[in-house]
Amino acid sequence: MTYYDFFTGRPTAEICQDLLGRALTFEGPQGKLGGYIVEAEAYLGTKDRAAHSYGGRRSQANEGLYCPGGSLYIYSQRQYFFFDVACQEAGDPQGVLVRAIEPVWGIEQMEANRGGKSGVLLTNGPGKMMQALGIDSRKWDLAKLEDSPFAIDLTEKKAAKEIIAAPRIGISQADPAWAKEKLRYYVAGNPYVSDMKKKDYDQGHGWAKV
After folding, report:
1. Most C-beta atoms within 10 A of its C-beta, which of 38, 45, 136, 188?
2. Where are the domains of the chain?
């Protein structure tokens, strides 16, 4: 299956859930860094008041959302960078924000990239995740996944015991309906999910036993 096939042809919320448990990696000068996706948010395009493309807004800054499914939309807020993948056909600006990964590859280097942060603080948020991967620019914005140093494993994934649907984080309450839409999906009990409380940690990190 190609990235285009994976990221088109079905609802963006379904694509978002299907990403959970898949390996996200970045292969750069520091070697292979990454882990398993444990949290992601769906953004539904022009009708979604929380989406950067709401109402058909389009500029150089959010052009990645208008690219064909499987294209990267990397944006910045303050000093942080965020990893989105466009979903659906070109011109239908929907996408998925990967919020958190459970680190597996290159953990020591990722800790160094995060200034010595370790444990759940390493990658339990979208800005932290990109910092851990050593991303400090929008260089790969608009690139197709297959033409970038990023990779998402479409051949296999870890199975979650339970996937939770919850409201997205940091969404303006100006539109209560969209702020409360349960379009954030995460692996229940995984400690690397951005707002996971210690009391809710699962001993097996929320993964089903094989």
Report:
1. 38
2. 3-197
In this structure, are residues 70 and 144 in contact, taking their beta carbons and an 8 Å threshold? yes
Q: What's the rounded Cα separation, in Å, for the pair 179 and 50?
A: 7
> Tokens in use for 33?
């860094």
Q: What is the DSSP letter of 153?
A: -
Q: Please write the tens of the pLDDT for every residue from 67-92.
A: 999 999 999 988 899 999 999 999 99
Count Cβ atoms below 10 Å from residue 163 Cβ, excluding itself.
15
Calculate the CA 199 to chain-centre distance: 24
Burial (CB count <10 Å: 0-12, 13-18, 19+), residue 116? exposed
Binning pLDDT at 50, 70 and 90, where does residue 174 land? low
What is the distance between the alpha carbons of residues 72 and 87, in angstroms, rounded to a whole number?
Answer: 10
**80-87 and 31-43 as β-strands: parallel, antiparallel, unpaired?**
unpaired
Tens of pLDDT, residue by residue over 111-148, are: 999 999 999 999 999 999 999 999 999 999 999 999 99
Q: pLDDT tens digits, residue range 31-40?
A: 999 999 999 9
